[in-house]
Specification:
By secondary structure, this protein is an alpha/beta fold. It has 25 helices and 29 strands. It has a 7-stranded mixed sheet, with helices on one face. Helix 5 crosses helix 13 (303-316). The longest helix has 19 residues, at 82-100. It is globular. The termini are far apart. 56% of the residues are buried.
């Protein structure tokens, strides 16, 4: 950054602590970040900053930051130089490749959306140069399920348009905890007359402003099919739209006849009258949009079909490519750094559509199979892993098994800002830059918010210690291993210019517009070219692709594998329903737990329980309890609240050690289409610790 200025400078940039990538104004004095405020003109976040954003300076300057490369010696760590670290890694990778083949090395990245394009792109480029097919990411149990479902229905990935919706269904989604900018916009819309429906086992604050259906966890697909039954049987669907633009409607009509409101009410434990009510409101609105939780509908054995059902609800009500519905959005064209690898990754044979369909190929293997492959060495040994921007030992299901698997590796390299549970197992730990210490692109709004908008994430402070951006690590390692031609970049600016090459924009343009620029427009006209990109040229209510692959072509409701109906003996031993993944606005996954200002607001892990459920088990508010499944147990505090559905235990996401919810989850059963594991609607029990 050069000589630090003595005056306070204000930079328009972004917070990249989560996928929201909110616009901020960062105040820097004498080279140090001193304050963060919301950027009011930012079209997505509109000046909203969550508790994490306000604590960015505490995060960046945390005494727990990793500052130098470290090498494990026994149970302790010693500081080494970057050059020594790269020599060790390169030598070990070459040795493992020679002995076991390139597929014996795997790569794993954390959040790989637009907020982390650099990590994903460069990890994929390096693994392609190295020759391994095994690249894994959080998309093996997060978000990709809904992308696949919408692609297989519309041939493209439409997004909600909440600012223009007459009706919104928040389905398993509490935006005040996970998406504060969206929550702010919904409250504004409510003041303008928005009709709001909340479907959630918990009565979230927004539920007080609308209709709330407190359904049994894991029964979402049944509810969606019940809504279709009402909409079709009462002729509330958009007939002209359906006839002109969809295929398979006649099959859907027959399929949903069995999902009567009375039958669905019994499954979901909600009144049949309310199912009819919300169906009429949703179908009768001029524009309606379902906004679903990040993972709440995905992480079930039926998660993919949950997502398909929501897409079909939009199709039969004509809420596609209209203002306020789901609308298509131009995604920013960026340079593709991938180098093809012919061999298929782990899991491609078991979940083939997760890998490819219609000529579209995903780069990911299905990491839910990885632990068994490492432990058994079948079909081949996996001996080394490089992990960037993620904490898989803590985050992935059945954390104990993954911990044992990672311990078995001959080489584990972790690059992160902090010493995570995964990093503590590593042989080499590398310090990563925060987004404020490097130049990058912020364009996530087109992928999650429906806004074709981009701005620079600016380098406003010098890197802490010897922290590097991820692109530099992979480039320098590539040069060490003889891949110099594939890694010519030497600066942040070169990397950004490279990514922008296919977009039509330049770094100079973005520098001239620090508040950001628009690069396209949302489409609200279904007759425009390529608005439906399925093989049939129609919105596919009935999916021939799914049928030919051996899956249900129209969503079918399936009971959670551990429910009292599906597994009555298990339910007698574990009589309560476990919901994992609950968020709070103070933390992003495992990040920021050491920041005292945030820890005062959310000091400890808790399990939310209805007071009746707590009394039945002899538990009081604030008691230390054990939450147990057949897989494992965690120790947390009980938080009694009437907002929680009776019989449900809601545990918070993102705590390591004895409070890590991943200890309660398993790697089976898996969604047959995506391979996502069942991380919710599990059988559990509670008792005082």
């Amino acid at each position: 950054m050069g000589t630090a200025s003595t005056k306070t400078e204000v930079y328009k940039t972004v917070c990249m602590l989560c996928f929201q990538v909110c616009g901020i104004e960062a105040y820097v004095k004498e080279g140090k970040l001193i304050k963060v405020e919301g950027m009011k003109e930012h079209p997505f976040s509109r000046g909203v900053v969550c508790p994490r954003g306000t604590c960015l300076s505490d995060y960046v300057y945390s005494p727990d930051r990793l500052k130098y490369p470290l090498k494990k010696k026994g149970e302790s760590w010693s500081r080494i130089s970057w050059d020594e670290a790269l020599d060790i890694i390169a030598s070990r990778l070459q040795q493992i490749k020679k002995e076991y083949g390139p597929h014996s090395v795997a790569f794993s990245v954390g959040s790989i959306g637009a907020e982390n394009i650099e990590i994903s792109a460069f990890a994929q480029r390096f693994r392609g140069a190295f020759g391994t097919p095994n690249f894994f990411s959080i998309e093996a149990h997060c978000f990709r399920s809904r992308i696949m479902a919408r692609l297989l229905t519309f041939g493209t990935y439409p997004l909600e348009d909440p600012d223009q919706s007459e009706c919104i269904i928040l389905w398993g989604h509490n935006p005040e905890a996970s998406e504060p900018p969206l929550a702010s916009r919904i409250y504004q819309a409510l003041d303008r007359g928005l009709k709001l429906i909340v479907i959630d086992p918990k009565r979230i604050p927004l539920a007080q402003r609308g209709i709330h259906l407190q359904l049994r966890p894991g029964t979402d697909c049944a509810l969606a099919l019940g809504m279709m039954n009402v909409i079709l049987s009462k002729n509330l669907y958009k007939k002209e739209f359906v006839e002109r633009y969809t295929i398979g409607f006649d099959k859907l009509v027959e399929h949903v006849k069995e999902y009567t409101p009375e039958k669905v009410a019994e499954i979901c434990q909600v009144p049949a009258s309310e199912i009819r009510r919300i169906s009429r409101i949703f179908a009768g609105a001029k524009s309606a949009s379902i906004i679903q939780g990040i993972n709440s509908l995905d992480q079930h054995i039926n998660g993919f079909q949950n997502n398909r059902a929501l897409a079909i609800l939009h199709a039969i009500t004509g809420n596609y490519d209209i203002p306020g519905g789901w609308a298509t959005n131009p995604f920013m064209r960026l340079t593709d750094l991938r180098i093809p690898v012919e061999e298929e990754p782990i899991g491609a044979d078991v979940h083939p559509l997760f890998r490819r369909f219609w000529g579209m190929t995903s780069p990911y293997g299905q990491q839910m199979l990885l632990a068994d492959v490492i432990l058994t060495e079948k079909p081949y040994p996996v001996k080394a892993m490089i992990v960037s921007g993620g904490n898989p030992v803590a985050a992935w299901p059945d954390s104990h098994k993954f911990k044992e698997a990672f311990k078995k590796l001959d080489l584990l390299v972790v690059m992160d800002l902090f010493m995570t549970e995964t990093a503590r197992l590593a042989d080499i730990v590398l310090p990563a830059c925060s987004s404020l210490e490097k130049l990058g692109l912020a364009y996530n709004y087109g992928l999650t918010g429906g806004m074709p908008y981009v701005l620079l994430s600016k380098r406003i402070i010098d890197p802490i210690g010897e922290a590097w951006p991820d692109w530099k690590f992979y480039s320098e390692l590539g040069r060490k291993m003889g891949y110099g031609e594939q890694f010519p970049w030497k600066s942040d600016e070169e990397v950004v210019e490279m990514f922008l090459k296919e977009s039509g924009l330049t770094l100079k343009q973005l520098e001239e517009h620090p508040e950001g620029v628009w690069y396209g427009n949302r489409c609200y006209d279904i007759t425009e070219p390529r608005q439906i990109r399925t093989p049939s040229g129609k919105i596919e209510i009935y999916s021939k692709t799914l049928a030919e692959a051996g899956y249900d072509p129209i969503p079918v409701y399936k009971e959670p594998s551990q429910s009292p109906i599906q597994s009555p003996e298990l339910a007698r031993e574990y009589p309560l329903i476990l919901n994992t993944g609950a968020r709070v606005p103070e933390y992003t996954h495992w990040q920021m737990r050491s920041i005292s200002a945030l820890r005062r607001q959310a000091p400890e892990p808790v399990a939310e329980i209805h007071p009746d459920t707590a009394r039945k088990h002899g538990i009081g508010d604030g008691d230390l309890i054990l939450v147990e499944t057949r897989k494992g147990q965690i120790r947390v505090k009980a938080k009694t609240t009437e907002a929680m559905m009776a019989g449900v235990v809601n545990v918070l996401h993102g705590w390591e050690g004895d409070a890590n919810e991943s200890r309660l989850t398993e790697l089976e059963a898996r969604d047959p289409v995506t391979g996502y594991t069942e991380m919710r609607a599990l059988a559990c029990r509670i008792k005082k610790s």
